[in-house]
Design brief:
195 residues, two-stranded antiparallel sheet
Length: 195
Amino acid sequence: MLSAIILAAGESRRMGEIKQLLPLGENTVLEQVIDNFLNSKVDEIILVLGYRADEIIQKVSRPIKIAVNPEFKQGLSSSLKCGLRQVSPKAEAILIALGDQPFIKKEVINALIETHNKSNLGITVPVYKGKEEIIGHPVIFDIKYKAELARLKGDVGGRQVIRKHPDEVLKVEIDSDSVIRDIDTKSDYQIYLRS
């Protein structure tokens, strides 16, 4: 079983408005992210919200678990911990995704899951065009890293764990820059709309 944690608790400071709720086709940015994972081979989805969570919950209606992080201002690690607490006890792996990457297709997600399942390594990361120094998302961690992820502090995510276990990392070449692009600013959003 694989549990996906979608981190979407941030304040969107650089955007100047709630980027999770920006329109994208018939959906919002966040709804598109969730739908991509709902259509993939993940077994459960845990959405972590924080800033203006009530407003986002009202507009995002999907069959998923929702965890609200009241301490989201303490950084990314606090949201990750909030999501980890909701992971099913049956989970064998945890996928960590970002709520502002709406163009990661289910085929990319499934390719990462299938490769991870066949691998003897504990961490699977996507890379784009051989740029191995740039680790994309989503990242899959074997369940044995759950406690280590839960001990992270401050505005850091899973990269710290990845750096600590270089021999356990499988880098998967993905033929899409969607794994390294996110929506942080209005110009990012306009580029996404045009594409």
